[in-house]
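Suppose you are handed only these lines of text.
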Amino acid sequence: MLNKKSVDDINVKGKRVLCRCDFNVPLQNGVITDENRLVAALPTIKKLVADGGKVILCSHLGKPKGEPKPELSLAPVAVRLSELLGQEVKFAADDCVVGDNAKAAVEAMKDGDIVLLQNTRYRAEETKNGEAFSKDLASLADVFVNDAFGTAHRAHCSTVGVTQFVDTCAVGYLMQKEIDFLGNAVNNPARPFVAILGGSKVSSKISVINNLLEKVDTLIIGGGMSYTFAKAQGQEIGKSLVEDDYLDYAKEMIAKAEAKGVKFLLPVDTVVAKEFNNDAPSRVVEGSMEPDEMGLDIGPKTRELYKAALADAKTVVWNGPMGVFEMPNFAKGTVAVAEALAEIDATTIIGGGDSAAAVNTLGFGDKMTHISTGGGASLEFLEGKELPGVAAINDK
Ligand code: AMP
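From them, the structure of the protein bound to adenosine monophosphate can be written out as follows.
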């Protein structure tokens, strides 16, 4: 269990509570196209309201790079949150985030009211953890709550800097839940513990592979990153994704797995095509590919091999698709893994980002134990790092 002060440990009655959420949702023409992150934030907001806090919400949205960009305003989030909560979320539209509008709105708050500040990344200091903006944010608050797991791996003003200027700092329910699930899986797993890693690049998951090899019973590799391992073992991989700088590393990891007695599973067959296109003719290859072919998914034998490896698992952590799942003709491997996870009697944890998107779009979302709201944050957690946004909160 996370040993940090939580919203259950603090008294917020009549106090101004600055709550950092992760409202970084996809928007198309001002319409929120996936509101999972808003829904995930509701329990903490409701708790703070029920306890009589004056709840001041803040978040970043996209990358405005320190400039007010109307298309990255949090205004649509205020509207949707008001509907989801059944009470007004007043939007304080200051380009400098903590300006006259925000100050007046906070001044006028009654216990249980909610105000949402403008996109914190409208201020250039936000991502540099600058002192002036950290102090501005802190000036609005008696208490700080961080519930933004998706940004917990970043030391920014609204996640870390502000904590230096507010006495009482706690984590919200979402942050607590994310860390508890990931932490229990990695540090205290029911065994067999299987990790599945896929996605495009070995380089982005080096430290995850290295750390998980100390913990898991089986490590399953798929997706674009598997071809670097295949090439390291002497296979011809045609035009497939590869990172030649990581061939030695791939060999090292295979040797480390062997030394640790960890089963290290790589694809035994591959669905290949000559073009990166859903309609490109494809075939299944065992072993080497032709020079003009590229691997776009794991093959049928690999699907069966991976399903069998998952059958008796008791804990599974999955990060990264098995192929180009966005193209239906190359999504079978990712679907097979999602199906296997949906069927087994195990704690199944999906890292955020593409794996979460894959599981949700393929319709398996409600079959998983936990789908993380943070891609980068869950990866850093799996690397064994302490997240700065969590480290900055007071211990219990
Ligand atoms: P990542 O962000 O590293 O987790 O990678 C996710 C992306 O990897 C998705 O957009 C997939 O389409 C892509 N991907 C997975 N397998 C392959 C592959 N065999 N070739 C090219 N891209 C792939």
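What can we learn from it? The CA atoms of residues 314 and 346 lie 4 Å apart. The chain has 13 helices and 17 strands.
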